[in-house]
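User: Look at the shape:
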Amino acid sequence: MNDQATLKDIAKAIEKRDIWAIFVHERPDGDAIGSGSAFYCWGTEMGKKCLWGGTHPVPKVYEFLPYVDVYQVLERVPDQLKGPDRAIIVLDTSNLSRCVAGIEDDLTLIVNIDHHMDNQRFGHLNYVDPTSCATAEIVWDLFKESEHPIPKDSLLGIYTGIITDTGHFTYSNTTSKAHAIAQDILSTGINPEQIFRHIYANRSLAGLKLWGYAFIRALSTSNGKAVISWLKLEDFEKLGADSYDSEGIVNQLLYVRGAAISALLTEGEDEVRVSFRSITGVSVRELAQKWDGGGHPQAAACKLRLPLEKAVKTVLQTLEEYTQDV
């Protein structure tokens, strides 16, 4: 189950299956939802019976994407989705602990498509390419390997996945290929301003105030190379904000002059989620791995089962030490 398959092999294998179950990682981002939406469109256009979902709802900013209305929040894979004529396609998910339970099955074809370097290659067919700017880029390549045309609705998801994972073509993972795919997509008449406004100009007032709380609390390490902030559970309750309103804050913290690393801690019911970002040449994946997390060199995350105050002190102290050699 660890070998790398070719995209042509994957296309041929899933085209033989009548039923596709498409799953994305917990707390899905634009790449996960965009890739999932694109895959669902492609499958239904082919006449496949498709289901897609994950452990958490679709963030409101991505509700403009096709077939988001049929996305299902699930804890486990339903038994009826398993069998020799079925395929379970897992997108943008580095390990199965980040997805719906019950995916492993000997009778059902498991396909794993991802661009995370720490992917555990849990599928019967795996295609993992850390050089791809987004899983959506791999989905585009897969569609191109197939003899079936790419529906225009799929292009919305692919474009969304690429622009969100590249920070609208500003992050270090932005490549000439990412721009070339975007050019091909835009040439079909897809409206980039419309997509931008859906994703980036669609913030609630509660979300705006939540960002303010994070900015007020922001502090840096003594050498100024890392900036950290945090959000309390009561912040969300007081403002009526949801967890997705905090998306993007950690990126803004990295814009502080001199910062090489940023971290945002978000308090949950029984754990604290930590999101890390870093500039090119500085990896935060190893930081996240200290607490059994993971991700990309410039974007990683983990969870701490500590009270928020202690978690903040722990991460800040670790960053003080980690940035000495940055």
